[in-house]
C-alpha cells in the first residue's frame, strides 16, 4: 500500500484588485478585505488604476504596514498617481512590458467652499504633503530616488521595463 503524502499544498495568497479610481468606495472595500486577513499574511494586489486620493493611498499603505501584510503588487495595466504609493509599499513588485505608471507631484483637488484662512492653512499643509509623499514613496521603493524624483518633476509616464531597469520591480513575461 502506497503511503499518502503528509505534505499540504500551499494555498495561494488572497488576491484583490485595485481597478478604477482610488477613492472612498474602492478604499473602503479594499480596507475591509485586508482587515479580514490575519496579521503577517501574504496578499496579492493587482493594479489597473489611474490613481485617486493620496489620503486613500496613505491609509492603505498604513494598514499594510501596521498589520505587517506581505503584499505582492502586480501592475497589469496602469498604476498611476496615488496608486504608485500603494505599489511601492508592496514587498514584491511585478510589471509587464506594457505596464504604465505616472509619477507626478501631488495635485490639489477640492470641491469644498472655504474661507481665506482655511485656504492658507490648506496651502501650507499641501506643501508639506507634497514633500512628505515624495519622500515616503522613495523610502518604500528603497532605491532609485534620484531617477524617480526626475520622473515626478516631469510628470512622466514610465513603462514597466524602466522600473525593472531601476531595480524596483520584476518583469512578468505575458
Descriptive overview:
It is a single chain. This protein has 174 residues and is an alpha/beta fold. α4 (116-141) runs antiparallel to α5. The strands form two sheets. A five-stranded parallel sheet has the order 1-2-3-4-7. The chain is built from six helices and seven strands, in the order βαβαβαββααβαβ. The mean pLDDT is 90. The protein has one domain (15-107, 115-171): 2-enoyl-CoA Hydratase, Chain A, domain 1 (Alpha-Beta Complex). The longest helix is centred in the last third of the chain and has 26 residues, at 116-141.
Instruction: Kindly report the spatial arrangement of strands forming the biggest sheet.
Output: 1-2-3-4-7
Shape assignment: globular
Q: What's the number of helices?
A: 6
> Segments where pLDDT lies below 50 for 5+ residues?
none
Order of helices and strands: EHEHEHEEHHEHE
> For the report, how would you describe the main beta sheet?
5 strands, parallel
* Through-space gap between termini: 43 Å
Structural descriptors:
single chain, 174 residues, alpha/beta, 2-enoyl-CoA Hydratase, Chain A, domain 1, 5-stranded parallel sheet, two-stranded antiparallel ribbon, 6 helices, 43% helix
Compact description:
The chain has helices at residues 24-35, 54-66, 83-88, 116-141, 145-154, 160-166; strands at residues 15-22, 42-52, 70-79, 92-95, 100-103, 156-159, 170-171. It has 174 residues and is of the alpha/beta class. It has a 5-stranded parallel beta sheet.
Amino acid at each position: 500500500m502506497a503511503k499518502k503524502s503528509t505534505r499540504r499544498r500551499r494555498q495561494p495568497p488572497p488576491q484583490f484588485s485595485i481597478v478604477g479610481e482610488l477613492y472612498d468606495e474602492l478604499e473602503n472595500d479594499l480596507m475591509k478585505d485586508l482587515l479580514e486577513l490575519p496579521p503577517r499574511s501574504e496578499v496579492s494586489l493587482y493594479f489597473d488604476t489611474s490613481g485617486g486620493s493620496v489620503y486613500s493611498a496613505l491609509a492603505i499603505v498604513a494598514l499594510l504596514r501596521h498589520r505587517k501584510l506581505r503584499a505582492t503588487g502586480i501592475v497589469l495595466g496602469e498604476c498611476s498617481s496615488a496608486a504608485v504609493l500603494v505599489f511601492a509599499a508592496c514587498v514584491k513588485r511585478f510589471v509587464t512590458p506594457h505596464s504604465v505608471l505616472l509619477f507626478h507631484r501631488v495635485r490639489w483637488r477640492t470641491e469644498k467652499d472655504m474661507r481665506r484662512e482655511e485656504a492658507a492653512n490648506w496651502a501650507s499643509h499641501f506643501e508639506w504633503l507634497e514633500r512628505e509623499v515624495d519622500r515616503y514613496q522613495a523610502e518604500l521603493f528603497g532605491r532609485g530616488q534620484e531617477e524617480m524624483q526626475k520622473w515626478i518633476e516631469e510628470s512622466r509616464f514610465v513603462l514597466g521595463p524602466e522600473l525593472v531597469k531601476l531595480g524596483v520591480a520584476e518583469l512578468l513575461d505575458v
